[in-house]
Amino acid sequence: DAGVIQSPRHEVTEMGQEVTLRCKPISGHNSLFWYRQTMMRGLELLIYFNNNVPIDDSGMPEDRFSAKMPNASFSTLKIQPSEPRDSAVYFCASSHHQGGNTEAFFGQGTRLTVV
Amino acid sequence: AQSVTQPDIHITVSEGASLELRCNYSYGATPYLFWYVQSPGQGLQLLLKYFSGDTLVQGIKGFEAEFKRSQSSFNLRKPSVHWSDAAEYFCAVGVGLTGGGNKLTFGTGTQLKVEL
Which residues pair with B73 in a beta bridge? Predict the structure, then answer.
């Protein structure tokens, strides 16, 4: 398996623009997580899905952030409008949960810079 | 709420020397514990995990970690460090989620530098 695939790897955008980050989880995994990594706050969980349904979005910082998972093989994280303080590395992770605990597998991340 | 403390922000060791990275957690129940490694510009790779059973767990790349409930610790060790081990290491505690899986709370990370 190719692992968790995120696109783009790097994104530079101007303040106020809409940004969409994409994630393809590992085939067969039924949980998907979006994390954000910054120097100030470290790694934070933004939202997670189970069987394509958003379960907990309490980590989403503001209404400007939204996430969807229209099917088991694709998820998006959208920021509209973007602000400079959204600059961070955004990671998607997936895991499979059937009959026990398993670990999360991370993508390589999207480095977002908002200027 | 759960939390993870990695008291060492930076550690420098010589190649071939032993390594121990410290991790302390706070969680009211039996924790699920993880160590991840992140190389520059890369995602997080799982080194090892503890769910239950033997408190000494073996991972990839020659790493091991020991769960000590009395000390709320899960320190990562390697007997002989290689230059390729230079990276950032994250300890995490997992809390069970509705529907399965774990919500990971990460420590702030320890940056490992290896001197040749």
Answer: B24, B68
Nearest beta carbon to residue B98 from set A4, A50, A101: A50
Q: What is the pLDDT of residues B14-52, one digit of tens each?
A: 999 999 999 999 987 778 999 999 998 888 999 999 988
Which of B43, B90, B99 is nearest residue A50 as measured by Cβ atoms?
A: B99
> Cα–Cα distances in Å, from A108 out to A10, A92, B22, B61?
11, 8, 25, 20
Residues on chain B touching A48 (C-beta within 8 angstroms): 97, 101, 103
| Residue pair B64/B79 in contact by the 8 Å Cβ criterion | no
Q: What is the pLDDT of residues A57-93, one digit of tens each?
A: 999 988 999 999 999 999 999 999 999 999 999 999 9
- A41: tokens are 């706050």
